[in-house]
Every structure is written in C-alpha cells, then in structure tokens.
C-alpha cells in the first residue's frame, strides 16, 4: 500500500480502537492545567498510529501531540493528534477526532480528520479536492462577507481579541464553540461555519484540517504566516476562514 | 392513541418532513434582527404539528414559536418549537431540534426533543425518568462541583453576567456553545455537559427539555423561579444545571 492508503486505514482502525477503549475506564492525567487533559487513550492511540506507519515506512519523521517520537526534521513528516478535543472525549463522549497529516519538506501532501463518534471522515490530497465520507466538498464562496458568517472557536477568550464581544457580535451572524480545532476547521471547509479562531493552536491540531480547508478555497493564518504552517510544538494564533474577505474582517479584531 | 403517542409519532413525522424540505430551497425571513431567522420550514412544520394534534384532540391550547394559534390559557397546553436552532438549521444543516411539551394546568406531563439530523430522540413523562432513543438516562451526580463542569450556552454574552470571562473561565473546565437551547439542556440531562445558560430564553425553547432534565435530577432557573416555567412569550434568564451546587455557583456570576 502507498502512504495514503496506510494512513487512511490506520486512522479508521484507530477509531475502532478508541470506541473499544471507551467501553473500559478512561484514565485522565492532568497536563498544564485542570482543563488540559491527556488520557491513556490519547497515548495508546498515538502509539498505534506511529507503530503502524513505522512498520510500513521506516525512517519517517513525526511531530505528535503526545511526543511518542522526538521531532527531528521536515523530511517525510507525519503530524499526528490522536485525539483532538480531549475534553469533549472525556466529558461529552463525542465531538473529538483523530488528525493525521503527511508533509514532505514542509509541503502538504495529504490530511485526514476522522470524527469518530459521528463516523465522518474528512480527507484531502493536495491538488485533488477535499472529501467528506467520499463525497467531494464544494468550493467555498469567495465573495461571502463577514456579516453573513458564523464564527466558531473561543471567540470571546479573554485577552485574545482587542475587539469587545459586543463589537464582534455586531459584525457576524452568530458564534459557536465545539471544542475541537481540527473538526471546527473541517466544518468551515464543509460550509457549516465560515471561520474558526483560536488564540493558541498547535500544529497537530490543524496540520491535516488546513489541507482540507485550502483544497476548497479556504485560507488560514498561523502565527503571522498566511497559508503556511509553523512546524513547532508551541501554540500560535490561528484563524481559518472560508475566504480572504472574512479573514481580513477577523484580523481587524486583533 | 393517547396524547403521548400522538405527540411522539407526529414529532418523528415532522423530522421526516424537515429532511424532505431540506432537499428543496429554504426561504429565510428576518424577524427582529439579521440573526433572528424564521424559515418556511419552521412555519410549515409548526402547522403540521398543531394540525395533527388538533385532529386527534380538539379544544387544546397552544403556545408556539411561530404563533400558529393564539395563546389562550394553561388548560391542556401544548408548547411547540418546530425548529429550535434555526441559525444552525439554515447555516450548518445540523444541530437543531423539534421541541414539543404538554402541560396540564401549568404542570408538566411529557416532553419530547428530537435532534433530527443526529436522529436522537430525548423523551420524558413526569415521574417516569428520561430516555434517549429508548435507553433510560442515568440520574445526575448531585455532588459534582462547578469546578468539574463544562458549561454550554452564550456564556460570555455581553451584559449577561457581571463576572468577567476570565473569572468564569477560572471556575469551570470549559465552555461550549451549540446554539440550540433545547438540545443543550438535553445534553446536560445526558451528562454531556453540566449546565446550560442563556440570557433570554423563551418557554418553547425549554418547556420539553426541562421535563427531561428534572427527571434525571437536574434543576433550572427561569426568570426568578426555580423549577417553574414562565408561561409567556417573552425571553427570560435561564440556567439549567445538573444539580443545585452547580446552579448556586453560576448564580454567583449574576
């Protein structure tokens, strides 16, 4: 099998693994704060994905949330979040996903985002469009204004935007917050909302989803760079939008 | 058939009606503001529900979002929201529901909340527990503190709470916002979050869901009254919580 097929099959198998592990007790560890979790499931699922890829393709690089392997370099780079939306996984038992992306020398090759409990697989290969459960996603309207947009993410997070909640509310239709960056970016790609914003997103939260988003005409800002990932382990300002008109509107809030 | 069975069957049929109408164009009318929609689907689905109930049980009272019948009195009162989460319906094509409740002389008899696209039916008869797709929901933990809670709703809405977003964030695990009050209250009942807050909820948004919530031990505040609906057409402060400990914590934000 080629890399794409191995990736796709292992993501689906990891979804089954998660569902099976949910029948047992989930052990929660605290990371940096009480709302920053990691579970035994995150760790085991990441190990399963890395081992499966490594068995088929040795000598790859990895950049992963649970740091199963050290991050060495950009050649043949697999970027993995075994569970994006761990709070949702622990508390809500839905609205979390597996995110897996493959980049070569910093350039996107393919991305997979699997909403396990909804059984929705978002996938894209660079240059071939994006798909949801095998159906091609439509290109996003490039003329849609901010005033016709639903914005998801932690919109009113303290010290994120200089614009006040009142100022932001006046400019948009509504805000929503699902709590999984990868899924919320994919939902922009699927035209369920028009932008996703977060003050501190990490590369494994968005590496796969931005491939899906840009394949349908969307755009993103990470840190200070447009349509370019930051390949490190830090959190960065992130805005993903259906078009640059909406992006520019959101940037005025900063 | 008795009232419960007629209600349950007509809610499921209304779900099919909505799915069929989604294949056609949805016409959007603006109500009080650009983010306050009503569609042809809301109106037709409400008329279907009222007509179906009226055919089996004449001389009932109705209190409904689209005002198909005038609200006269509390005897044999059906409280209906044909689509709760109209913005989600129009923009996201999911995460909306049908809410139907039946009250006699102001006392709850039964409530049904149907998440159409997820095919999840929440239902409760007073005194008989609450069910999700036929499975009985567990009683909620009455000792769970606010610090172990996910809060949904428009938590940071301007001029809603006196507490700042920073103060609120420190006291909880996370906040989420789905955009359908009825569904978000049912999700508290199903232990997917621990409270739902909104500054201005109307009785048709919560009449069915609060029956489901209180059947599993939850509690709610509407306006100034605990566990008591306000039967009018105005918006009221609403807090629904898994227990009174969490409720009291949220009340300190007011």
Automatic annotation (TrEMBL), chains A, B:
Its EC number is 3.1.3.25. It catalyses: a myo-inositol phosphate + H2O = myo-inositol + phosphate. Its cofactor is Mg(2+). The keyword Hydrolase applies. The keyword Metal-binding applies. Pathway: Polyol metabolism; myo-inositol biosynthesis; myo-inositol from D-glucose 6-phosphate: step 2/2. Mg(2+) binds at residues 65, 81, 83-84, 205. InterPro entries: Inositol_monoP_metal-BS (IPR020583), Inositol_monoPase_Li-sen (IPR020552), Inositol_monophosphatase-like (IPR000760), Inositol_monophosphatase_CS (IPR020550). It comes from the Bacteria. GO terms for biological process: inositol biosynthetic process; phosphatidylinositol phosphate biosynthetic process; signal transduction. Keywords: Hydrolase, Magnesium, Metal-binding. Pfam families: Inositol_P. This is inositol-phosphate phosphatase. The lineage of its organism: Bacteria, Bacillati, Bacillota, Erysipelotrichia, Erysipelotrichales.
């Amino acid at each position: 099998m080629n890399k794409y097929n191995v990736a796709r099959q292992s993501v689906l198998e990891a979804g089954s693994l998660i569902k099976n592990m949910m029948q047992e007790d989930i052990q929660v560890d605290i990371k940096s704060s009480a709302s920053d979790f990691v579970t035994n499931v995150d760790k085991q699922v990441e190990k399963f994905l890395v081992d499966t890829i490594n068995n088929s393709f040795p000598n790859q690089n990895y950049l992963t949330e649970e740091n199963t392997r050290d991050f060495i370099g950009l050649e043949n780079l697999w970027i993995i979040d075994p569970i994006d939306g761990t709070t949702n996984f622990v508390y809500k038992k839905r609205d979390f996903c597996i995110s897996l992306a493959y980049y070569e020398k910093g350039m996107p090759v393919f991305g997979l985002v699997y909403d396990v409990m909804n059984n929705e697989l978002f996938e894209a290969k660079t240059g071939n469009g994006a798909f949801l459960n095998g159906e091609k996603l439509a290109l996003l309207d490039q003329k849609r204004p901010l005033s016709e947009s639903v914005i998801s993410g932690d919109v009113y997070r303290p010290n994120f935007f200089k614009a006040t909640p009142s100022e932001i509310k006046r400019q948009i239709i509504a805000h929503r917050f699902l709590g999984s960056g990868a899924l919320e970016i994919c939902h922009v790609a699927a035209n369920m909302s028009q932008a996703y914003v977060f003050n501190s997103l990490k590369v494994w939260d968005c590496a796969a989803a931005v491939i899906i988003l840009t394949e349908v005409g969307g755009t993103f800002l990470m840190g200070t760079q447009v349509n370019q990932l930051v390949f490190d382990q830090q959190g960065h300002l992130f805005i993903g939008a259906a078009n640059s008109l909406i992006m520019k509107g959101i940037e005025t809030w900063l």
